[in-house]
Design goal:
There is one protein chain. The protein has two domains: about 60 residues, Winged helix-like DNA-binding domain superfamily/Winged helix DNA-binding domain (Arc Repressor Mutant, subunit A), CATH 1.10.10; about 180 residues, Rossmann fold, CATH 3.40.50.1360. It is built from ten helices and 15 strands. Strands 6-5-4-9-12-14-15 form a seven-stranded parallel sheet, sandwiched between helices. It has a three-stranded antiparallel sheet with strand order 1-3-2. Strands 10-11-13 form a three-stranded antiparallel sheet, covered by helices on one side. Strand 2 and strand 3 form a beta hairpin. Helix 2 crosses helix 3 and helix 5 crosses helix 6.
Length: about 280
């Protein structure tokens, strides 16, 4: 039986914002710190645009381009049209990278909030998807817990960061989501237990959570079945889009993190969840 706890109680450090409540971009005191942040981002994503780096770092376009030229001269990145790419081929598909850049600011805020709410020694399952991937990107350096995942990009980033322990769930690769799915993936969850599942979705409405294909559903349900709490991570676009396959109703969800309030009719239902809805960004 799933137990609930106060949403993010005692574990969330509020980001510094201005008088309007907007979160400021990260700023680094020295160029080496800034360039390391660029390297970490590129290693995780495979490709990052100059525009995105300017927004993340809170510096000018000229400063970012100067840092990129320095990193390229040092043989650490490759400058390409519009941005920078990792030297070694990324496991991400162009489709995954493109989705990651849609609503990127909201996904980053959601991922950071979800990561801050985790205990540093937690065992956490991270679902496939670009919003849940943002949570993996946001795991702090002092995280010494275990990550369970079927997402190839999450596994890749975990290897890059040298996490203490990662449990990868194998199976048949679904190119569209860059994740393993199918009976072997489901079977791989047998005997596992996680504190929290960070769940992604293609769409949500008052009836529940939806995914794009039937292939995804069994693996997501298997991950849900091994989790003490299930936190749904969705950006605002998921409230207004649709997807064909119903994954589950709201009764299965512990809490929601989003970058915008849900529509009124849905908000009433989500307010009944054990941890409610947390709006960030």
């Amino acid at each position: 039986m799933r137990t609930s706890r106060p949403p993010y109680a005692g574990s969330v450090k509020q980001p510094v914002g201005d008088a309007m409540g907007e979160v400021s971009a990260l700023r680094y005191d020295t160029a080496p710190e800034r360039r390391q942040s660029i390297l970490d981002t590129v290693e995780g994503a495979g490709f990052v645009s100059v525009t995105e780096l300017t927004r993340r770092l809170g510096v000018s376009d000229m400063t970012v381009r100067r840092d990129l030229r320095k990193l390229a001269r040092d043989g650490r990145v490759r400058i390409v049209h519009g941005g920078v790419s990792a030297l070694r081929p990324a496991l991400h598909s162009p489709e995954f990278t493109g989705r990651a850049e849609e609503h990127a600011e909201g996904k980053q805020a959601i991922g950071e909030a979800a990561a801050r709410a985790l205990d540093s020694r937690a065992t956490v399952a991270i679902d496939a998807g670009t919003t849940t991937y943002a949570a993996m990107q946001a795991l702090p350096p002092d995280f010494v817990g275990t990550v369970v995942t079927h997402s190839v990009p999450v596994m890749q980033l975990a290897l890059t960061r040298g996490l203490a322990r990662v449990v990868g769930l194998g199976g048949e690769l679904l190119p569209s989501s860059q994740a393993f799915v199918g009976p072997r993936t489901v079977e791989a969850t047998n005997g596992l237990r996680v504190d929290t599942l960070l769940l992604g979705a293609a769409a949500v409405d008052k009836h529940g959570i939806y995914v794009s294909t039937d292939n995804e559903r069994p693996t997501k349900l298997a991950l849900m079945g091994i989790a003490e709490r299930i936190v749904l991570l969705v950006d605002a676009s998921k409230f207004t889009t649709s997807a064909p396959v119903l994954l589950c109703g709201w009764d299965a969800i512990t809490g929601v993190v989003s970058d915008a309030p849900p529509p009124p009719a849905m908000a009433r239902r989500l307010a009944e969840l054990p941890e409610g809805v947390r709006v960030v960004g």
